[in-house]
Write a structure and sequence with these properties.
Helix content is 50%, strand content 11%. With 679 residues, it is an alpha+beta fold. The chain has a six-stranded mixed β-sheet, with helices on both faces. It has a five-stranded antiparallel β-sheet with strand order 1-2-3-4-5.
Length: 679
């Protein structure tokens, strides 16, 4: 059966020749940069090693029998299978899905389109290079630009650097050349190699720019970047190809990977830079394991991809605020992928390119290899330098670092990092471990609820009969989080009912039936009452704004909320982690099997389902209003005391009226809630 070319490309990218050869119990021994063994191929027996594996090129070769090639060729020889079966064997090894069925018409069309796109990008790549190397304008403008920035000719050609001229006539444009060569107008537009102005006239998208082709790991051109040469231009400094289907997804790609992959595999290390010229300068100075993320910053997909090639990385970003922020974000993405991270900030706000132009190649390499520090030292020196000695900020700092440490999968590496953080901050490692455990439990709980909830997406709240994977019993010695929260506790009671039962009805057996959300909103907004906690108020406002939308999924909405604090609060309110206060307890006999002459034991429990909404919703709202008014009463008394001291008789009179009205409401609510008000 035929296999999709995209799958073959995946296999080629994943298959490491050394790993594949060793999986056949071949005893490889290192000699310099190569690995040697007796030939493992069937039918060739030898006493001296002539089989060579070259990790840098990802190939093998037996100098005795002459057989060799890449990992696919090796499997073909070892298993005595055809090309397709070898791909399947390797795909299984690297967990790559292969559909064992004939290509559908749609799949064939996709394959043909991919090949057509490659043909266009290959033509464009060669045309751009030709313009720089073989035309007077290209030599005078484009090559002079690269030459003045210290780029050698061999490096320029290795990176396929080129030029798209600002053509004076249509016949000189890339667009015209591509049409003349038989390439379809549709493909040229899809690849953003040409554009159309308001008058319908076609023009080269990259005109007047030097070109940086982006290659896949299999050395095929998939996209382009173009830098403007005009100074003080109001145009964007860089133009870049837009994403196109599965052909070019910038969030997955790394600039320079095709040129760097052999060194990455050999050195088991990678440098991560920010820009095209940074990568090129690194390679020119001998650090040929340098790449840059395509796009404005590193993505999860790029971080994961890097981790498949090596677990050792050095981040080389600018030392300004934007660079520090980008490096911190990159650390967050790389740590979960088991990466050992170093970071280097160049002096005098240099980037790798500008630094290279000020130093010799030897100075460049020596500095970069000797001055990098691990990610913890970097964050302490640059990102968190002002927080270490500030008590208030130090708490937040420990929380932030604990979140990063929690993501490290390797227990040994995590332990080393925890102890280093504790030493630097002069803080207890045990407390950091406890914080990490809390974060881990919370993540598991949220994930468990997410999975359970998605089984029934039509439900507007987490099911009552769901038992969470962790308990919230208040064991001796632990803090009861429902205490000492002040008014927030009672606001959360309202929000819990609103989020879980907002679309349900109360008093539904009477003509007065009303939705829970409508009732709560009328009771709260009618008295001009708000929540003192801004986060709780935002949750309240966002729910009331969205809940009538038939596509609104309350749990998913807050689970994916961009504000992490709001997300955490809402998720806890949607689960049983948040407990109502004791006023809402209901009493009932322990069991119904008691004799008439024996008093049944009465137990108290919290209402657990929507059957109690008729009583529960008003109680919760009135409870909040009661404590809200009590706080307001205290504030009014303080104001009246100040007004008395200032002899402002009119203000005192107005405040007394407010106090009287407020006190009447408090007594009414207290009677409803069966509370005792002490005057």
């Amino acid at each position: 059966m035929p296999i999709l070319r995209s799958v073959i490309e995946q296999v080629k990218q994943a298959a490491n020749i050394e790993d594949v050869v060793r999986s056949y119990n071949v005893n490889l021994r290192r000699r310099g940069t190569s690995l040697w063994a007796n030939c493992p191929f069937p039918g060739h027996e030898e006493k001296t090693p002539s089989f060579c594996v070259t990790p840098a090129k990802n190939i093998c070769k037996c100098f005795g029998c002459g057989k060799g090639g890449d990992a696919i060729s090796f499997v073909i020889e070892m298993e005595n299978v055809n090309y397709v079966d070898a791909i399947k064997i390797l795909a299984k090894r690297y967990n790559i899905e292969v559909e064992d069925k004939p290509l559908t018409k749609k799949e064939k069309e996709k394959e043909e389109r991919q090949e057509a796109l490659y043909a266009v990008t290959d033509f464009a790549d060669k045309w751009f290079q030709k313009q720089m190397w073989e035309t007077p304008t290209g030599q005078d403008i484009a090559w002079r630009y690269f030459h003045n920035r210290g780029i050698r000719e061999d490096i320029a050609k290795a990176f396929h650097l080129g030029y798209c001229p600002n053509a004076k006539s249509f016949d000189d444009t890339f667009y015209h050349a591509a049409l003349q060569a038989g390439y379809k107008d549709e493909l040229l537009k899809d690849l953003h190699l040409c554009k159309e102005n308001e008058k319908g006239k076609k023009y080269d998208f990259f005109f007047g720019r030097v070109i940086f082709p982006i290659l896949s790991i299999s050395n095929r051109v998939i996209a382009f970047g173009g830098r403007i040469l005009e100074k003080d231009s109001d145009k964007a400094k860089y133009y870049n190809s837009s994403e196109l289907d599965d052909f070019y997804v910038k969030s997955k790609e790394l600039y320079g990977l095709a040129q760097a992959i052999s060194t990455i595999r050999r050195k088991d290390h990678i440098y991560l830079c920010e820009g095209y010229m940074d990568v090129i300068s690194m390679h020119q100075n001998g650090l040929t394991d340098a790449v840059a993320s395509c796009g404005t910053s590193l993505t999860e997909q790029q971080a994961h991809r890097i981790s498949t090639y090596t677990k050792n990385i050095t981040i080389l970003y600018d030392g300004d605020k934007a660079g520090i922020k980008a490096a911190t974000r990159a650390i967050d993405l790389l740590l979960p992928n088991q990466m050992k991270i170093n970071v280097l900030v160049l002096p005098d706000d240099d980037d790798p390119d500008s630094f290279a132009r000020k130093h010799t190649a030897q100075e460049y390499v020596e500095y970069i290899e000797s001055q990098q520090t691990d990610w913890i030292d970097y964050l302490m020196k640059y990102a968190y330098a002002n927080d270490i000695n500030d008590i208030a900020k130090k708490t937040d700092l420990i929380n932030q670092l604990s979140e990063k440490l929690q993501t490290i999968p390797d227990a040994v590496y995590r332990d080393i990092c925890v102890r280093k953080v504790a030493t630097i901050l002069n803080f207890s490692a045990d407390i950091i471990y406890k914080k990490i455990e809390e974060i881990t439990k919370d993540i598991k709980l949220r994930e468990q609820y997410k999975q359970t909830y998605q089984k029934d997406p039509a439900t507007d709240y987490v099911p009552d009969d769901y038992v969470p994977p962790t308990t919230t019993d208040n064991k001796e010695g632990t803090k009861d989080e429902t205490k000492d929260e002040g008014l927030d506790q009672y606001a959360k009671n309202i929000l819990q009912l609103l989020l879980r039962y907002g679309t349900a009805y109360i008093f539904k057996d009477t003509p007065d039936q009303i939705g829970v959300a409508e009732f709560i909103n009328a009771m709260v907004s009618g008295d001009d009452i708000t929540f003192e906690n801004d986060l709780l108020q935002q949750i309240y406002d966002e729910y009331l704004y969205s809940y009538k939308d038939e596509n609104f999924n309350v749990f998913q909405y807050f689970l994916d909320h961009p504000n992490q604090q709001i997300s955490e609060i809402a998720v806890h309110l949607l689960t049983d982690d948040h407990r109502l206060s004791k006023i809402h307890e209901v009493e009932e006999p322990e069991n119904t099997d008691f004799s008439p002459d024996k008093e049944p034991k009465i137990i108290k429990r919290m209402p657990s389902d929507a059957d109690e909404l008729n009583d529960l919703v008003p109680k919760v709202v009135y409870e909040y209003k009661y404590y809200y008014l009590v706080d307001k009463q205290k504030a009014l008394l303080n104001q009246m005391k100040e007004a008395n001291e200032a002899n402002e008789s009119q203000l005192v009179f107005e405040l007394m009226q407010k106090l009287t009205a407020n006190n009447t409401l408090i007594k009414t609510l207290a009677e409803f809630l069966k509370k005792v008000v002490i005057n």
